[in-house]
Amino acid sequence: MSREILIHVADGERRVAIVENKRLDDFYIELDRHRSSLGNIYKGKVESILPSINGAFVNVGQDRNGFLYLTDADHPYVQDFDNLNGPGAAAQSFFDKILNRKPPPRSAEPLPEGADAPQPAVAAEEPKPADDQQRGRGRHGRQQGRKDRPIPLKTSQEVLVQVEKDPFGTKGARLTTHLSIPGRFVVYMPFDKHIGVSQKIESPDERHRLRDIIRACDFVKDGGFIVRTVSAGQEKEELLNDARFVYDKWQKVVKLAKEKKAPAIVYQEGDIIWKVVRDFFRKELTAVHIDSREEYEKLCKYVDALVGKDGLKKVHYYGGEQPIFEAHKISAELERIYDQKVVLRTGAYIVIEPTEGVTVIDVNSGRYKTSASPEEAAFNVNIEAAPEIARQLRLRDLGGIIVIDFIDMSREEHKRRVLDVLRAELTKDLAKTEVNKISSLGLVEMTRERAGKTIESLKFAECPYCHGRGRVQID
Fold first, then answer.
1. What is the DSSP letter of 157?
2. Residue 125: pLDDT band by 50, 70, 90 thresholds?
3. With a threshold of 0.90, does the pTM exceed it?
4. Cα–Cα dist 177/162, whole Å
5. Alpha helices in 120-203 (DSSP H)
6. What is the distance between the alpha carbons of residues 106 and 323, in angstroms, rounded to a whole number?
7. Which of 47, 239, 320, 446 has the fewest CB atoms found within 10 Å of its own CB?
8. What would the DSSP string read from start to end of 34-57?
9. Which comes out higher in pLDDT, residue 124 or 51?
10. What are the residues whose beta carbons fall under 8 Å from the beta carbon of 179, sequence distance 6 or more?
11. Which of 397, 396, 291, 384 lies closest to 334, judged by CA?
12. Cα-Cα-Cα-Cα dihedral sign, residues 397, 402, 403, 409
């Protein structure tokens, strides 16, 4: 299998295409005019608290205040009333110290009946996206079962928060106090005393080996780790080096948090070149081609620091006359990711309609012809469309609620196989997804994590004449 990364650098823009077997598999854009704040850590100040919507607005120095759910602020190591001298005491003491506040008084009030006791922020495995129900709040942000609990924040209080979703439309960034710093193989969580292993690593022996390696991190005094999927089969030295790397980053955050006054940024996620090395530089990677000499030098430094000198053999500067995407014959594919209609090889097609609240995808037979029965014909079109739908969601970075209207099938075996193909292709996606069963109407409801703007919204603006309707009135 051939897997290459192509990086095009232009004025104020960097585009990354991941090509698998000479076919576009994933695509990312970074614009200087819109730098993502996802993953950044801020020392913020609470501006207002709204118990009615179970949230607080925190000033982190952006144009709009970020939004922090109160259930996200009720962190077991930030508000550890019942166990200040227990496992969370060190983290609590540290948090109070860098934010220059006195520890909260011990509360003698017991939890109300039916309320959830504070739970560790990370489950026994690599966490799935926490939905509203998991975080103790309803669909509209109201707390469930915690009405009598004290509000964990107060106005003008300083808090360390991390951006888990970029500002979107008129909304500010979504924030959390469950901080994490990702590396190539592990994710460090300074306030979560836990070691988790990715669910995708199935071998019990390998999971046990990885846990034992991370437990050997004697240089880490507090916090915990999540072992990422790509850690499977890695040498002990590589894992420990990565753990030390992210832990050292956290020490720098601690130093800045002590020195800076809120609102201030204390940790900034790397640029897209850094993320390429951290998240995609794997053993199966064939080569990385980049068409900027300056960015090539930066890329080599990142590879040397994170991967080692052997990784430099895969990094190549492209200086050809043709644009890099044209030379690798993916320009036409890139242009098609903005099209509403995607034609499949058999002549069938899918239509993708993003709206403000939901993305609708319709599967149509189009010019597909066969002598098979209507049931078999519907199955053949759906089984071809399913992986392409998953691929288009990745390429366009569409998130939120997604409804897929497959062609009606009556056989349960056919429905199951189509869903299996869809879910198998979605495993390639870095964004977290959840897929429901096919309904009696042939609809599939699914969700895909949305952390920032879509690819289309980064490249196109709403038409000032039709306001995005895309229609001309007939006289």
1. -
2. very low
3. no
4. 6
5. none
6. 64
7. 320
8. B---TT-EEEEEEEEEEGGGTEEE
9. 51
10. 41, 160, 162, 189, 190, 191
11. 396
12. positive
